[in-house]
## 1
Amino acid sequence: MKRSMLVYSSATGICVGIASVFLFGVGAWVGVVVLVLGAGALGAGLLYRHTTLLVVAAALCACALGIARAELYTNSENNQTLQHYVGEEQVIEGRVVNDPERRETSLHAHLQVEQVGGESAQGKLLAILSRDTQINFGDRVEVKGKIALPESFETDTGRIFDYPGYLRARGMSVLMRYGSVEDVQSGDWSVRKFLFGIKHAFEQSIERALPEPDASLMEGMLLGERRGIPEDLNDALIIAGLIHIVVLSGYNISIVAEQILRLFGLVARKKIALVLGAAAILLFVVMVGGGATAVRAGVMGAIAILARYVNRPAAALRALAFAAAGMIMWNPAALLYDPSFILSVLATFGLITLSPWAEKYVTFVPAQGGLRSIAASTVSVQLFVLPALLYYTGIFSVWALPANLLALPLLPLAMLSGFVTGLLGLISSFLAFPFALLAHLVVEWLVLVASVAAGMPLSSFTIAAFPAWMLALVYIPLTAFAVYQYRSFTK
């Protein structure tokens, strides 16, 4: 029996188990029944050496595991006490557990609450503070404000954004708008605090070396930070279908890592190049703070490299199933309530399964420098994430494909030059200048492509909102097509 069947059935079982708890309120007793059925199937499969029964047993046992994990997660949510204070103005004491996100008019901090009004409390809260507030990861703070429940809201495209679900995936059920900081005590040293300090120094280095909006766009590409990008440029990136370049994702990392591997491959053996490439991905994750998003992007990027550069799509697909299941077990709410996680998994799956097929149809793109590989990756990823993007945003970008084909071949150069600029800028602005000039020229090209594509006639239009079951109906044949092409290539 192929190991891949056990991996895929187990990953599917975990997803089904977790989803059944969140969507249908399945209890622990159902998990026990499923586990008993799984044990029975396992015994019969071993007794009769029946492959199908063993696969079913793996799926059932994994489903029971998913139910148990989701039950623990929901029980932990139910034990939180912050909901008792909704509607009240209180003084909250807690610890900052994220790198506070400084936006255009506010600062968003995640607080692990320890006391409310002097009484012990448990839970996690989003504190929306004044933009000028100076707090850091690990600091202990006292914040005063009104505790409220998050509410879903309608977007510009008519979509209902599930804001409570978005916060739930981040472990929060309540928020405090217009909070004020009463007291701050610097937190103790920690590895994550040290990494975030490196990240901030790196950001300041880029901001010294590049003018705006180049610096903000570069921080978006390297760090996933979109806070400083002008609204008109952000809108142009969305309309042109290029907004993903300023979202820290495995797709972006894989494109850059593949070019780094090709560069190392010119001067070193393949195994050494792979080690150096892996070190480059690890360094990148460390430099951007080592947060959950960065780690996920690094893992997805490494899996994509396994499929594309090492040419082992079967191993990459198993690694994707294993990694996705592991991330869901770590944070079960991400399965249904974290669009960035869902899109990241879909993009990586599309890249692994459809890139070889797409490469047959982009022969007009030169193969030199990996341009054809990038073009094929672009087509495959765009094709597989499009339905999900339409579901979440409703914006169909007419010129997305040509815009991506014009922009993405230079994305590795943009990110690499920006990364070197930030590193050397920590030492000397003079050393960083040549790379900053190169980064500026490439970023200006990306801005030009986005602006022209967004300004074209009928550049985009809005798709009417559709239910989740319709999205599932679209992905069933699309996934079947992708798997068929994948199997044709791996035979």
## 2
Amino acid sequence: MSALDSNIVTIALPYISRDLSAGYSLLGWVLAGYVLAVAALVLQSGKLGDNYGKRNVYLIGFAIFGIASALCGLSLSVYQLIAFRFVQGAGASIMLATGIPLIFASFSPSERGTAVGINSVAWAVGAVAGPVLGGVLTSIDWRLIFYVNVPVAALAILVGRARIPAWLNSRNNQAGRLNLSSATVLGVAIGLIMLWLTLLDVRLAALGGLGVAAFAVVESKTKNPMLNRELLRNRGFVFSVVGLGIMMTAFFGVVFLMSFYFQSVAGFSPLAAGIWVAPLPAALGISNPLAGRLYDRFRRPAILAVVGAVVVSGSVMLLSSALRTPSPSVSVLALLAVIGGAGGLVWSPSISSAIQFARPETRGVANGTAFTLIYVGFATSVALVVSVSTASLPAALSAQIHSGNLTGLSAASAMLFDQGLVNAVVALGVVGILGIPFLILVLREQAKRHLVTMEESAGPETTALVAG
């Protein structure tokens, strides 16, 4: 449901622009508001699951998501839509924070990578169906893209109550209380930085920096920190989540950008745009479970993420050349498929590595921390695309794109906007390159851990013999 919603909304943005008189910047917040709520709340949602039982909290997340989806469909202005997207993000944060820990509790260590990979098939089905279904529904009425979540959420609650075992609802009394003050400061800081990237106002950058500093101060003084200090000292975990967050910044922005390229530049219908975007999530759906299976077989599975990160970054750079014309070629389809396939090699191994480095008692908050950085990356990618793609445009065209109707650009304006989107793709590729060193460091930490495991299993006599 989460993947379906994300892809459907992206395809519908130009039509939301027309009906609600919203420009590029506000449309970015239709996506960014959702992911900002997830980033700010997912850690607290993980604690909710630990304190009150992951099964029940997981299903409450579906209920919040379904109700918020209905309210999004009823929105009469873009500001209402953004507000309800925040609520929707709160529901999504609960599902994300408790879903993978439920899987880890259900399988043995040798099966967890496979289980996470198979779980991602559900995400892939929604991701593949999202662009095409979004095109069909948007052609009728874009509000349907939100209403479609309501019956899915209701069905998920009914099935979950019947099928998720009660023993998975156990509580961890050591999880600690919620820390809403830190969550609020973090959310405000991220929001200010995103506004800076969107509006290019240096004052917002300064306020965002102060917000980050305030968050660090609040965290250092509280007895109940939002970020687990044990995990922050765990180098393997830190490298995994930072590398994954950076790579998702490079990855997520591609789908957002391509929706505007196909509809505002190439002039495609929503359905045609959905079909052209579909190769990326389709390839992601194939590679995610494959990468999950391979994770269980490799001694140092981070090699999959390193290879995937190199391919994602290189393919995004090549995509910038393929988009230099308003008429997309078959090479665009091929590159989108390669980016999606390589993204799966990054996703499953990295999220599995992050949680595997954590002790079982901290895996709920470890998962929440990972998704915090992932969604910060998602929000940053949207803000980055908006900022870079309009930075070099003439003032009049930039103002039209930021505040006007994106479905009615002239041919000359579309050509200029296309060049701005090309610049944004290059920026995403550069971000991807920056994530590769962190994933290489994860590879090194896995090698150290494997050596320690071998020594412990060998026993003191064999270890001494090897040392001698």
## 3
Amino acid sequence: MNDSLMNDSRAQTEADAAATVEDIVRRAGTSFYWAMRRLPENKRRAMYGIYAFCREVDDIADGGDAVEDKLAGLGQWRGEIKRLYGDQPRTPVTLALSRAVGEFGLKKEDFSAVIDGMEMDAVPEVRLADMDELTLYCDRVACAVGRLSVQVFGLGEEMGKKLAFAQGQALQLTNILRDIANDARQGRLYIPRDLLDSHNIAAGDLSSVLRHPAFPKACETLAGVAEQNFEKADAVIAECDHVKIRPAIVMMETYRRIFAKLKRRGWRRLDLPVSLSKLGKLWIVLRYGVF
């Protein structure tokens, strides 16, 4: 096969992979899909690939398989990321990312960090020792995704890293605070041990920890950390070209509203769900992601 035919075959394969990845993102039902749609084609495809990768590994970590099977599945993805950077991608997701890696300078260690975070979630019980471990967890599952994204958006390295860290911490802490009750039913508690100790909450089964009279104070402390990171992210966004980072702004505004609802609900009625309506999400997309 001559070089021209090989290039045509590779281009067709990448086009098919791009269509598959876009379908993954569309079927996920994320409101961020429409914000990503507004990006130039090369950036849009890169973001779809990043989102689809995160979706694939998250589904493994949160699935119902045995721990060893989850770790094996994540190990396969670790091998696939290695092949991606060896110019030998084999899955639709990594094929869709193959051009983006070189074009936008996506770093292998950020993809690997996401897998590291999923491995933290794949075990039967999740307990974090201290705030440093919580920060590391958030960095892996959220900030690393942000670092990949800001590369695509075209932010400078210093500005990009600041936004990725602050926004990633704010958004993941919001997730943690929103999902406390549901996570506990799965044997997971992301409120770190040192924070519980500071409020004299003894270690025990998760239901007793969540019912402890001082547990809302621990949640409020963590909410304060999230709030600080929202403010830091806002300060960085104020210095950015908003057109470049529309998807990031849509995420910020979506999670800001969820966080505000959590604060209003408080931390004593953890089983009371907090979410945004479809109309509310649509308004955010139209306001911050389209116009």
## 4
Amino acid sequence: MAGTIETDVVIVGAGPVGTTLALLLARESVRVILADKAAEIYPLPRAAHIDHEIVRVFQSVGAAEAIMAASKATTYYDFLTASGELLMRFGGVDQTSPSGWPASNMIHQPSVEAVLRNVIAKTPAIRLQTEWTLTAQSGTDGGVVALFDTPQGEQKVRARFLVGCDGARSTVREQAGIELEDLDFDEPWLVIDTLVRDPSRLPDRNLQICDPKRPTTCVLMGSGRHRWEFMLKPGETAEEALDDGFIAELMKPWKVDGAVTLERKAVYRFHALIARQWRKGPVFLAGDAAHQTPPFAGQGLCAGVRDAANLAWKLGMVLRGEASDSLLDTYRTERAPHVRAAIELALMMGRTVCITDAAAAAARDKAMLERGVGGGSGSRGALSGPPFAAGCILAGSDAAGSYFPQPWSRDRTARLDDVAGPGPWLIARNGGARSSSLATVSLDDARIAPFAADLARWLDQHGGDAVLVRPDRYVFGTGSAGALSVAWSKAIAGAPA
């Protein structure tokens, strides 16, 4: 065995959630070992969608522009009957969102991961180790010890915290003995990813075909790709579904022969699951290790990156001695309701789509068409989770727990986050009380002149002289600058606000 490596945080799993968490921790001056059992990035498409909040997180680690260059903003997400009538529409998702980025963006996951890995390569605080397989973990008085099987033999890592970002079959979760809550959705689907040769012959929007004979998904993706998903019928096996002849028959109605070429085929079981614990001592779960959702709302990867954004600053503050360990307990308190809301939305969509009884499907179509859910009257713009009801917030103050917007300059060349910088912000009309742990931003500060009007308007809407914005860009609370500073200090110290 090689000598023990000492670090602050060890992350198991270097997919998009693990790499994002590592980069966010590095911004917090945290030393990270990022370990993955694979030698290289998985080369084929998996996740297909990120929303505006996720792009803003990528902006914070210097990766947004490169990721967006290979993505594609969407216009509509339509649910259709078998005959093509519009049942439900999620529209306006290409419009500018509260973060300033397009609300909904289709991606090519390997391209996203490559961008994040490139940033990691330039980040000295992160040590990326590939072909490292976690074999054991144990808690200690000062943190955790993890053992890895590596090409050079067994390696011991001692860290203050360990985070499992190692996917749906999480070794970290299994070794920690954490159980999953089953939300009662289990459907087998065939996923077909294609390379696009002639985009003019493909749909220009995302589609759910609510056909009881074969529920089908058809969505755009980034980097010149398109995806179809076909629900399997009872009795159809994965082996049968993956046969090229079977796939060719499913694709015939789309009339795309010659317009696309097959890149990947796989059979998945779409699940809805949430871990009963997200923390066990010094061990945390994030991403698919903590929760799994059917893909209908496009929130699987988004939820994982939100986990990373929520957890990173809290780990950073605790490691620097600026916050009580109890701050880390707010991670699940805040994230679990968000995740549950996203899964419930996906389940609503999935249960709308996955009706295979003809009479039940006809009744669904009739009811939805009579209610006029389609025709652009459904949900519009950016999807958002509920405000935090509890956690590290100033409960009772206006907008506490809600998402704080990011104004851009009119010429789109400057963004608030880039100017104001990392860490928590205390934004006040006149600067107000200052704190050593807070970046105080006054509306008369020349640096934020391009955003001052938007910020003043937000304060007017919420009736406060100041707002305290957390590092993950959620609102701690509103009120007077002095009172917010005091309440923040109490909250991170684990005292009642």
